[in-house]
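Collaborator request, handled under Task 6.
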Amino acid sequence: MNASAPEVLRVAVAGAGRMGARHIRTFNALAGVEVSVIYDPRPASECDLSDVMQGRCTQSYQAFLEQARRADMAVIAGPTATHFGVTRDLIGCGLSCLVEKPMTVRPRECLMLGDLARAHGTGLYCAHIERFNSALQATAGLLRNHPWEEVNITRHNPDSARLSGDSIVTDLMIHDLDIVQHVMGLTFDALLDVESGADGLDLSAGEGADHVAVRLQTDAGYPVTLSTGRLPDSRQRAIHARSAKGSLYVDLLNGGHDLQFATPDLPAAPEDSNDSNDSDALTRQAQAMVCSVMDGQSHGLASAEQSWQTLTLCQLIEQRLRLAS
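Structure tokens returned to the collaborator:
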């Protein structure tokens, strides 16, 4: 989109479930942005949307595509199994697309969609919301550049829906794999160790696995341990980093961080932000997507190639879990 862009940027949204409804509310609240059409196979009255937004819903996929051709971008937030086909169709309509994570079921489909988007001259990105968590944004440079001895990332969400076809790895751990890739650097040979269990028993990946622990070697030079669970604990989303000179705690769930260094010659603690909650991160992500539509730059959004790499690591982890069970 260039200087001749319309005054109102129109967004087509496929999927009005929990995340789709959040995207709809977030984009429609932005100045100069309007959600113009919504597709969901359910009746509009069953979607958690305002009366105005329900009036823009259709259960007809073909009617949705016809109206989407008049939009400027699209959000794909339906079941993961539908992402590839819907995104392919919307790219074919000439729309830049923001796809909920995981971008597709199979890693190679990310690359196929990336090639298609380039052929049509449209943008394609995956909605990894933690990239826009201001607590992470404030500490990313320190996490990337300080010589940490070890970093632990914990994500426990007992309320996480057990989505059909999505294991705990592709449902939850994928957030932290993207953090490591985005902030610290990650390659396929980074995988050091994988463990899984539930109620003290070793289980394969999939619906039965309530906890997965993964150890990785980052491009930044230090190991990272990811601990992800659906166990009946309190919710946690945090990063703990330590070195011989001090420690850093990043609270991704509630915002803020605590930096403790023993010597004064080390970097000053980054300033805390008071707007680190999920709603604000979702708004920043939406703003980044709007900017991307306007100027063609990524603005920190996850590319199809990065999504391919993260999803490939998910599959490698799940293969290790199955072999160990």
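The cover message to the collaborator said: "The first strand starts at residue 9 and ends at 14. The radius of gyration is 20 Å. Please let us know whether this matches your experimental observations."
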